[in-house]
Amino acid sequence: MLSTVDTAPSRVNPVAALAAALVIAVGLVLSVDWVSALTALGLELALVVALRIPLRALLSRGAVLVLAAGLTAVTILLYGERSGVVHWEFLLVTISDGSITLAIATFLRVLAIALPSVFLFIGTDPTELADGLGQLVRLPARFVIGALAGLRLVGLLGQDWRYLGYARRARGVADHGRIRRGAGQAFALLVAAIRRGSTLATAMEARGFGAYPTRTWARPASFGWRDTILICAAFVIVAVAITASVGTGHWNFIGSR
Fold first, then answer.
1. What pLDDT sits at residue 211?
2. Per-residue pLDDT at 4
3. Same domain, yes or no, for 78 and 161?
4. Confidence class of residue 236 from pLDDT cuts 50, 70 and 90?
5. Quick check: is 215 in a domain?
6. Residue 34 sits in which domain range?
7. What is the 3-state secondary structure (H, E, C) of 118-171?
8. In angstroms, rounded to a whole number, what is the distance separating the alpha carbons of residues 19 and 176?
């Protein structure tokens, strides 16, 4: 279980991790340049080492992130801003100095913005996050607990998909027509998910969930010095990245485009 991994994020309140990720995302989205993105990315990797994030867990989750950032960069490379020397052109596709620079900046920025959302939540228990959102952020308990219940059911979708595949193969209807089989199986999975959600909603209402505007919490959520340090580290990362970008003359505010 990821919740049993003894890492610094697992000892930090998930609300603090969420706040730190939001601070970095908001700070880095203000400019599209490679200097601030690369600076923030380097500081985030240093934070990964300081928090003792398991390398295997980071790589398994970061691989998808690198793929998504790469695909975004390729799109910008082919259809981005045309400026400077044009290296290749075909119909709507144009690769120029401007599109190359913008693609590199976009790749680094996607990594820098999304990476904290990956490593800060390794080892985080969704129940602890719900406790923090309900007690510290004061979000409505009905919304928080309902979202937590739905999140718990997401993990069952993969198991349901496998069981549906086994059942279809046992009936001999999964031997051909892969596209048609996948569409039918996806519809069956949707129906099963709706039925399970309706059953869960009925069970929660039968137990009095949401009957009163207030509720008690089984586990109190606290905000300690580790949480404060993590949020301050996020502000430092953003401040250093912006300072480096402005100081080198690469600051490119998104509103100016």
1. 64
2. 43
3. no
4. very high
5. no
6. 2-127+222-256
7. HHCCCCCCHHHHHHHHHHCCCCCHHHHHHHHHHHHHHHHHHHHHHHHHHHHHHC
8. 49
